């Protein structure tokens, strides 16, 4: 099992639970005796913590991590000493007891954050990375919900959804022409 929880769902009520999280490494902060990793998935960010109690082989793996590495972390949920009110999981952190690197990554050409340092041209060249950013993801989720609501409404009105043969040249945006017929 790759995960028991998403990176956006753990709260103070989960303290002392042993959890498995998977996601992308957003940021690594090495403060000497302690290292913090912000682990991100499509649901949010959770802080992982590695301190002097962390086993040597795990510390060695952590030293190899870079931005956008895909990892799996197993550990115990604990209360954060300095809470972060800017994120939903800001009251907790994960004390890691096992770490697996699922996939390494080259350094991305821009940061995968709400405010990216990449210009439009670079972001479009690496669109697959840009889709990981929260504003883009939120737009895709809204679009999917709107399409679902529209289809549900039309279905309730006894329309029949039919995909037609290609009537026009396809576009890079991937538009699909749908025909709704009413009985």
Question: Can you walk me through this structure?
Answer:
The chain is an alpha+beta fold and 183 residues long. The protein has 2 domains: 12-103, Nucleic acid-binding proteins (OB fold (Dihydrolipoamide Acetyltransferase, E2P), Beta Barrel), CATH 2.40.50.140; 120-182, no CATH class. The chain is built from 4 helices and 7 strands; from the N terminus they run βββαββαααββ. The strands form 2 sheets. Strands 1-2-3-5-4 form a 5-stranded mixed beta barrel. The chain is elongated. The model has no long low-confidence stretch (mean pLDDT 89).
Could you give a short description of this structure?
It contains four helices and seven strands; from the N terminus they run βββαββαααββ.
Helical segment count: 4
Structural class: alpha+beta
What shape does the CA trace take? elongated
Got a strand count?
A: 7
CATH architecture of the largest domain: Beta Barrel
Distance between the termini: 47 Å
Which helices and strands appear, and what pairs or packs with what?
Layout lengths: L17 E13 L4 E7 L2 E7 L5 H8 L6 E10 L12 E12 L16 H6 L1 H4 L3 H23 L2 E5 L14 E5 L1
Parallel strand pairs: 3-5
Antiparallel strand pairs: 1-2, 1-4, 2-3, 4-5, 6-7
């Amino acid at each position: 099992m790759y995960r028991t929880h998403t990176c956006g769902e753990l709260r103070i009520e989960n303290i002392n639970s042993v959890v498995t999280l998977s996601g992308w490494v957003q940021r690594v902060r090495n403060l000497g005796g302690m290292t913090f990793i912000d682990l991100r998935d499509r649901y949010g960010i959770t802080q992982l913590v590695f301190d002097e109690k962390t086993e040597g082989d795990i510390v060695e793996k952590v030293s190899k991590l870079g931005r956008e590495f895909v990892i799996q972390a197993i550990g115990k949920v604990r209360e954060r000493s300095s809470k972060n009110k800017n994120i939903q999981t800001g009251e907790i952190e994960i004390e890691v007891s096992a770490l697996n690197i699922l996939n390494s990554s080259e350094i991305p050409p821009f940061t995968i954050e709400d405010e990216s340092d990449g210009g439009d041209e670079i972001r479009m060249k690496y669109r697959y990375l840009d889709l990981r950013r929260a504003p883009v993801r939120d737009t895709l989720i809204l679009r999917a919900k709107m399409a679902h609501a529209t289809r549900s409404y039309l279905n309730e009105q006894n329309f029949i959804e039919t995909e037609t043969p290609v009537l026009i040249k396809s576009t890079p945006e991937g538009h699909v022409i749908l025909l709704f017929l009413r009985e």
